[in-house]
């Protein structure tokens, strides 16, 4: 005979108190319900609206706001509407200051890091210390992931070891006999995180010589790096950086004697704005991965619907928008909404964290939105919502996901 | 050897753009004695006009070569009229500060308006890279490199000819030589200053059209171009148009050689080192304006 012990609010409270006593829960996580009122939940987000990583932060803000509007139009979450407070943060110092302002001054209930690896790494210690439920949308850096934090969840961008492994696989799918592989990585946070993943994956390949070259953020001249690849007769290059950096490197390659090259780009560089840089006629041999199943220019119904919503709110999109960060910001907000809904009406940080860990296959259609990302699932020991990546190539003048 | 030639070709391509930007700086300074630190912002706007015309409006590329100099020249003339004319009699420091902050205002307005890392512009000319045999080796040159190098240099030399031989150039040279004397000869300060700013702005606009495909359109373009244009102009003697062209080419080649054989990160440092070396060797630049008179 099995004895049943019903899980009551009291027993959960006792368990949480025990965990808190043991130091396993972040300070303040137990009963904090700041940012929650009778009819509103305030969510805060930070990211760069100007500067070199504005291609991440600005789409993040727009994607989140688009989802917030959609969720509110469906009646909100358990009777409460969502309200977004977004803070611009480009540098690490700005990221920490923005996180502190959002949590301590704006009193947001949940913090979304829509800043890429630089901001996520900078804010990592602060969010761990405060215990605010945090959703890391774009940071692949291990600094925000390790050590494991109970209050930090990760969205569509997987850790660098997964994306790096996928990129290396693509190289050898395109050139199975490649013996000399180049790694071209930016010196800033997210390319360095990806570089570590790439080198770890390349280490497993026997008899492959790896040539590593780096560049500064915003670089436009890749003379020294490309000459190094040409001198060492590199056959394929893995690029970790933004679309402009990758684009100019590929464009300048023939000018430096680098021809018949296979290029594999990380997700940040896989953007339609790269095509005018390299020229549509020079896109053969250029591959990448994409963190969501559709590119904005594809004609699959979910992404067509998403584009309609985006244009209805923001008008005609500028070049390169909406991009993966728009889509990820949008879909991730629905995942957050699923966690908030599961947490019930008596919201607290601890309650949200517990509910978030039980979310399975959360997707926008749960709240009436188009499913433009892979569904996300979490567990108490795994806070990475998505690990799937699509293989992408440029076909008919646009990026397309060719294998999911 | 083939590698070295490819590096030199790349350097000359960037150098030609620097030269064109530097000529615009020199023209405005020569005619109005104003050091225009907003010139990089005008180049950036020229590149932005290219983006609008070619990418957004999908008009033929040649329209960018016509519209960008006209629009940016007119904008530069308007800036002179509205901002610099009222402070023309102020001390040099005030005028310099005004152009510095004007440049910052142009860049930041663009940054706030566009909210993007960079706008990409396709190349004006397309085609596969050309492989040129060189003994047992071969070097590669692209159609864009040829077009930008020849186009920018021809534009620069056309500007030089206009300044030296045409009527409007004569008025600017007269003003540069002696303002009071030029006025007594019937030249209007207001008209000549407006013309000089239009001319300099038009050259900045054209430099932007040539630079857009190889550097993209972003506020960082303004910064990179203005620093290169000033180094090129100072190397050339600051008041010499031919000096600006040679200074630009020299700077482009030295930058690219240092990127190729020292380090990309050292590129800027090497260009400023070149500036110091030239100034230590010839403090008035390579082509100083003649100060003496034949008697």
Keywords:
heterodimer; A: 404 residues; alpha/beta; Rossmann fold; seven-stranded mixed sheet; 12 strands; disordered N terminus; B: 295 residues; mainly alpha; two-stranded antiparallel ribbon; 11 helices; 2 strands; globular
What do these coordinates show?
- The complex is a heterodimer of chains A (404) and B (295).
- Helix content of chain A is 39%, strand content 16%.
- Chain A is α/β, with parallel strands linked by helices and 404 residues long.
- In chain A, the strands form 2 sheets. In chain A, strands 7-6-8-9-10-11-12 form a 7-stranded mixed sheet, sandwiched between helices.
- The longest helix of chain A has 20 residues.
- The N terminus of chain A is likely disordered.
- Chain B has 295 residues and is mainly alpha-helical.
- In chain B, 74% of the residues lie in helices and 3% in strands.
- A two-stranded antiparallel sheet of chain B has the order 1-2.
- In chain B, helix 2 packs across helix 8 and helix 2 packs across helix 9.
- The mean pLDDT of chain B is 86.
- At the A-B interface, helix 2, helix 7, helix 8 and helix 9 of A face helix 1, helix 4, strand 2, helix 8 and helix 10 of B.
Structural class of chain A: alpha/beta
Mind telling me the C-alpha Rg of chain B? Answer: 19 Å
User: Terminal Cα separation of chain A, in Å?
Assistant: 47 Å
Counting H and I runs of at least 4 residues, what is the number of helices of chain A? 12
Proportion in helices of chain B = over 70%
Biggest sheet details of chain A: 7 strands, mixed
The CATH architecture classification of the largest domain in chain A is: 3-Layer(aba) Sandwich
The coarse overall form of chain B would be: globular
């Amino acid at each position: 005979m099995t004895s049943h012990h019903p899980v009551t609010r009291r027993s959960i409270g006792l368990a949480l108190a025990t965990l808190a006593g043991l130091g396993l829960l972040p300070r303040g996580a137990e009963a904090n319900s700041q940012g929650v009122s009778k009819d509103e939940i305030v969510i805060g987000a930070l990211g760069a609206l100007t500067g070199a990583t504005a291609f991440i932060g600005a789409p993040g803000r727009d994607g989140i706001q688009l989802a917030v509007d959609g969720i509110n139009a469906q009646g909100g979450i358990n009777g409460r509407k969502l309200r977004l407070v977004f803070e611009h943060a480009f540098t690490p110092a700005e990221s920490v200051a923005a996180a502190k302002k959002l949590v301590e001054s704006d009193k947001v209930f949940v913090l979304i890091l829509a800043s890429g690896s630089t901001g996520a790494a900078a804010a990592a210690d602060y969010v761990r210390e405060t215990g605010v439920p945090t959703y890391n949308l774009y940071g692949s850096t291990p600094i925000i992931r390790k050590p494991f934090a109970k209050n930090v969840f990760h969205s569509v961008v997987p850790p660098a070891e997964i994306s790096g492994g996928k990129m290396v696989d693509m190289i050898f799918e395109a050139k199975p006999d490649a013996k000399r592989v180049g790694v071209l990585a930016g010196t800033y946070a997210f390319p360095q995180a990806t570089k570590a993943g790439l080198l770890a994956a390349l280490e497993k390949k026997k008899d492959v010589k790896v040539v590593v070259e780096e560049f500064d953020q915003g670089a436009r001249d890749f003379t020294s790096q490309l000459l190094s690849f040409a001198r060492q007769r590199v056959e394929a290059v893995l690029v970790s950086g933004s679309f402009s950096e990758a684009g100019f490197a590929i464009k300048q390659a023939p000018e430096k004697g680098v021809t018949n090259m296979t290029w594999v780009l990380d997700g940040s560089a896989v953007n339609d704005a790269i095509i005018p840089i390299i020229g549509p006629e020079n896109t053969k041999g250029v591959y990448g991965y994409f963190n969501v199943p559709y590119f904005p220019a594809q004609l699959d119904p979910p992404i067509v619907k998403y584009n309609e919503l985006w244009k209805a709110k923001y008008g005609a999109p500028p070049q390169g928008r909406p991009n993966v960060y728009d889509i990820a910001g949008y879909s991730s907000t629905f995942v957050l909404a699923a966690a908030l809904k599961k947490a019930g009406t008596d919201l607290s940080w601890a309650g949200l964290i517990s509910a978030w860990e039980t979310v399975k296959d959360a997707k926008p259609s749960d709240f009436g939105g188009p499913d433009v990302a892979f569904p996300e699932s979490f567990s108490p020991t795994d806070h990475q919502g998505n690990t799937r990546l699509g293989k992408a190539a440029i076909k008919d003048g646009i990026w397309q996901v060719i294998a999911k | 050897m083939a590698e070295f030639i490819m590096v030199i070709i790349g350097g000359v391509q960037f150098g030609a753009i620097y030269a064109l930007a530097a000529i615009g700086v020199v023209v405005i300074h020569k005619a109005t004695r104003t050091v225009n630190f907003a010139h990089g912002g005008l180049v950036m706007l020229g590149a932005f006009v290219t983006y609008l015309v070619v990418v957004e409006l999908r008009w033929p590329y040649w329209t960018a070569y016509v519209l960008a100099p006209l629009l940016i020249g007119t904008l530069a003339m308007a800036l002179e009229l509205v901002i610099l004319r009222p402070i023309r009699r102020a001390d040099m420091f005030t005028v310099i500060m005004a152009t510095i902050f004007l440049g910052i205002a142009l860049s930041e307005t663009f940054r706030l308006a566009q909210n993007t890392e960079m706008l990409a512009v396709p190349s004006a000319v397309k085609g596969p890279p050309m492989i040129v045999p060189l003994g047992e080796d071969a070097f590669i040159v692209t159609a864009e490199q040829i077009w930008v190098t020849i186009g920018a240099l021809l534009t620069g030399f056309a500007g030089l000819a206009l300044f030296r031989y045409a009527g409007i150039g004569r008025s600017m040279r007269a003003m540069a030589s002696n303002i009071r004397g030029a006025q007594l000869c019937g030249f209007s300060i207001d008209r000549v200053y407006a013309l000089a700013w239009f001319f300099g702005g038009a050259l900045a606009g054209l430099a932007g059209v040539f630079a857009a495909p190889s550097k993209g359109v972003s506020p960082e373009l303004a910064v990179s171009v203005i620093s290169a244009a000033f180094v090129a102009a100072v190397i050339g003697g600051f008041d010499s148009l031919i000096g600006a062209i040679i200074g630009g080419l020299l700077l482009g080649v030295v930058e690219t050689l240092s990127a190729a054989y020292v380090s990309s990160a050292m590129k800027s440092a090497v260009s400023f080192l070149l500036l110091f070396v030239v100034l230590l060797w010839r403090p008035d630049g390579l082509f100083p304006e003649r100060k003496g008179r034949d008697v």
